[in-house]
Amino acid sequence: MSLVSEGADFSVTSGSVYAEPGLAEPSLATVGDYIALLKPRVMSLVVFTALTGLAVAPSHIHPLIGFTAILCIAVGAGAAGALNMWYDADIDALMTRTARRPVPMGRIQPGEALAFGVTLAAFSVMTLGLLVNWLAAVLLAFTVFFYAVIYTAWLKRWTAQNIVIGGAAGALPPVIGWAAATGSVSLEPLLLFLLIFIWTPPHFWALALYKSDDYERAGVPMLPVVAGEVEARKQILLYTLLLAPLGVAPWLLGYAGALYGATAIVTGAIMLALAWQVYRERSPEERAGKRLFAFSILYLFLLFAVLLIERGWGGLLIRWAV
Predict the structure, then answer these.
(1) The whole model's pTM is what?
(2) Which range marks the domain in which residue 283 is found?
(3) pLDDT reported for residue 312
(4) 322 in a domain, yes or no?
(5) Which DSSP state fits 254?
(6) Same domain for 191 and 163?
(7) Which residues of the chain carry a pLDDT beneath 70?
(8) Quick one: 289 and 207 in the same domain?
(9) Which residue among 3, 131, 187, 301 has its CA within the 20 to 30 Å range from the CA of 194?
């Protein structure tokens, strides 16, 4: 459900096989394959940002209800990941970054991945609606649909702006967490949504710069492939120029304290410096792009971690103890 990329393992795999949907072959899947189908690294970021949204919300929520909400959001994220892997199995088989996934490798049949994803999606949405509230459930359903259908099945293969528009899916978890706690949506979670939304393009395009051969081979119209590396570098810098002050906005608007403000200023400055290096670099090794990609993950984590510590954990523990 999140558009944060899974770029930690870029090893080249030869001999990967994508099983055609029409072939009725026995499943070779293990428990680990089904866990991989959930995109656990992506799920962890979804859970973390949703937990932050829930924890900073100004309302009392029972610990069991809060746990149920986060569990449903995690399962929904896993469902979106499974549906993404089902639909993208053909292009995943062509990319070294994704060729070892269970569907293109033939360990999980496409129909199994589809059934698994649909079942998890229905379970997570219904459980969230029945046990928490229906606003959060509707937002979760929309997020799964947007990621699996709007982004995966349409935008990803159609436009170089795929990651920009599709970033809405990965940006919604803190809004869902807030809605689960309050039954409403306000400016603060929307600001967190906007922060992740603007963060997504420079994060993903930094990856696309040094994996452009993968995307070109798979026919995915990522910005460096369609518009060229020069334009991609410029867009990375422009989005980072928007991102840095946006990261400071929760502090400026009074939603966060001095620790968050200092963290946002320092890490935002580092993001800008790295984006400038990407803009100026013309090295085929794309060292600056790799540095920006790696730091962008740390940047988002630090902002939400400090916000969770400063606004969330203390207040959340006090509210749960009352």
Answers:
(1) 0.89
(2) 186-317
(3) 66
(4) no
(5) T
(6) no
(7) 1-27, 312-322
(8) yes
(9) 131
Return the pLDDT at 14.
38
What is the full DSSP assignment across 79-105?
HHHHHHHHHTHHHHTT-TTTTTSTTTT
Quote the pLDDT of residue 236.
Answer: 97
Q: Verify that 84 and 174 share a domain, yes or no.
A: yes
Q: Establish if 81 belongs to a structural domain.
A: yes
**pLDDT score, position 60:** 80
CA distances from 315 to 56, 62, 307, 319 (A): 8, 13, 11, 6
| The predicted structure's pLDDT at residue 6 | 56
Q: Is residue 6 part of a domain?
A: no
| pLDDT attached to residue 18 | 46
Q: What is the DSSP letter of 311?
A: I
- 3-class SS at 226? helix
Other C-beta atoms closer than 10 Å to the C-beta of 164 total 20
Report the C-alpha gap between 261 and 251 in whole angstroms: 5
pLDDT tens per residue, range 200-212: 999 999 999 989 8
**134 and 209 in a common domain:** no
Residue 249 buriedness (CB in 10 A; 0-12 / 13-18 / 19+): middle
- The pLDDT, as a whole number, for residue 11 is 38
Residue type, 318: I
Residue 109's SS3 state is coil
The tokens 């039954």 sit on which residue? 183
Residue with the two structure tokens 């200092």: 262
With CA atoms as reference, report the closest residue to 162 among 206, 209, 207, 201: 201
Phi, psi for residue 101 in degrees, rounded to 5: -65, 155
Residues 135 and 193 in one domain: no
| Per-residue pLDDT, 2 | 57
